[in-house]
Amino acid sequence: MPSLGRLHLVTDTRPGRDPLAVVRAALGVAGPDLVVQVRVEDAATDREAYDLAGRIVALCAPYRATCLVNDRLHVALAVRADGGHVGADDLPVDAARRVLGPDAVLGATAREPVAARAAVDAGAGYLGVGPCHHTSTKDGLPDPIGPAGIRAVVDAVDVPVIAIGGVTAATVPALRAAGAYGVAVVGALSTAADPARATAELLRELTC
């Protein structure tokens, strides 16, 4: 199983975004410390998801960066990604583990300690926990849990906790102090004027 990077870039495929350009910029700075999670809009076809994921797997390979596919595990298998990530409305974690196999990277979404422990017991190798702060990149999210919510999950499990939701370089120190292993970002890179510089700023806060 690949080692897990601390910076997770979740692709932003909303109109007007260029996820491939952002991935290229982030890889050029973070290299193997980057995990790219390929997430597409619900309306995207499997072919569209397959095409995007395949291109990102190819981009990640020279850098030995980890590439995961969110939700669509059949696409993860088809493009030979390193694994996948499942949310609350996707396949159950134990089923996802059976689909991907024992050696794949498998992340699951959790918000509080009970669900977090259940996900780990079912086979999750890391947890995406949040939303930490308010975010506009995904609709229908519950209220933010803040660093205190991150700490509650960290204290309940023994796998890496990746904080997600409205994360910026400025909020990373508090999340790391709460025990987060790393962070996942969407808008912090996809809306940045200079994604490479934004990546460097996030990495600096994650490793200092």
Automatic annotation (TrEMBL):
<keyword id="KW-0460">Magnesium</keyword>
<comment type="function">
    <text>Condenses 4-methyl-5-(beta-hydroxyethyl)thiazole monophosphate (THZ-P) and 2-methyl-4-amino-5-hydroxymethyl pyrimidine pyrophosphate (HMP-PP) to form thiamine monophosphate (TMP).</text>
</comment>
<feature type="binding site">
    <location>
        <begin position="37"/>
        <end position="41"/>
    </location>
    <ligand>
        <name>4-amino-2-methyl-5-(diphosphooxymethyl)pyrimidine</name>
    </ligand>
</feature>
<dbReference type="GO" id="GO:0000287">
    <property type="term" value="F:magnesium ion binding"/>
</dbReference>
<feature type="binding site">
    <location>
        <position position="138"/>
    </location>
    <ligand>
        <name>4-amino-2-methyl-5-(diphosphooxymethyl)pyrimidine</name>
    </ligand>
</feature>
<protein>
    <recommendedName>
        <fullName>Thiamine-phosphate synthase</fullName>
        <ecNumber>2.5.1.3</ecNumber>
    </recommendedName>
</protein>
<keyword id="KW-0784">Thiamine biosynthesis</keyword>
<feature type="domain" description="Thiamine phosphate synthase/TenI">
    <location>
        <begin position="7"/>
        <end position="189"/>
    </location>
</feature>
<dbReference type="InterPro" id="IPR013785">
    <property type="entry name" value="Aldolase_TIM"/>
</dbReference>
<comment type="pathway">
    <text>Cofactor biosynthesis; thiamine diphosphate biosynthesis; thiamine phosphate from 4-amino-2-methyl-5-diphosphomethylpyrimidine and 4-methyl-5-(2-phosphoethyl)-thiazole: step 1/1.</text>
</comment>
<feature type="binding site">
    <location>
        <position position="109"/>
    </location>
    <ligand>
        <name>4-amino-2-methyl-5-(diphosphooxymethyl)pyrimidine</name>
    </ligand>
</feature>
<dbReference type="InterPro" id="IPR022998">
    <property type="entry name" value="ThiamineP_synth_TenI"/>
</dbReference>
<dbReference type="InterPro" id="IPR036206">
    <property type="entry name" value="ThiamineP_synth_sf"/>
</dbReference>
<feature type="binding site">
    <location>
        <position position="166"/>
    </location>
    <ligand>
        <name>2-[(2R,5Z)-2-carboxy-4-methylthiazol-5(2H)-ylidene]ethyl phosphate</name>
    </ligand>
</feature>
<dbReference type="GO" id="GO:0004789">
    <property type="term" value="F:thiamine-phosphate diphosphorylase activity"/>
</dbReference>
<dbReference type="Pfam" id="PF02581">
    <property type="entry name" value="TMP-TENI"/>
</dbReference>
<keyword id="KW-0479">Metal-binding</keyword>
<feature type="binding site">
    <location>
        <position position="70"/>
    </location>
    <ligand>
        <name>4-amino-2-methyl-5-(diphosphooxymethyl)pyrimidine</name>
    </ligand>
</feature>
<dbReference type="GO" id="GO:0009228">
    <property type="term" value="P:thiamine biosynthetic process"/>
</dbReference>
<keyword id="KW-0808">Transferase</keyword>
<comment type="similarity">
    <text>Belongs to the thiamine-phosphate synthase family.</text>
</comment>
<feature type="binding site">
    <location>
        <position position="90"/>
    </location>
    <ligand>
        <name>Mg(2+)</name>
    </ligand>
</feature>
<feature type="binding site">
    <location>
        <begin position="135"/>
        <end position="137"/>
    </location>
    <ligand>
        <name>2-[(2R,5Z)-2-carboxy-4-methylthiazol-5(2H)-ylidene]ethyl phosphate</name>
    </ligand>
</feature>
<dbReference type="GO" id="GO:0005737">
    <property type="term" value="C:cytoplasm"/>
</dbReference>
<feature type="binding site">
    <location>
        <position position="71"/>
    </location>
    <ligand>
        <name>Mg(2+)</name>
    </ligand>
</feature>
<dbReference type="GO" id="GO:0009229">
    <property type="term" value="P:thiamine diphosphate biosynthetic process"/>
</dbReference>
<dbReference type="InterPro" id="IPR034291">
    <property type="entry name" value="TMP_synthase"/>
</dbReference>
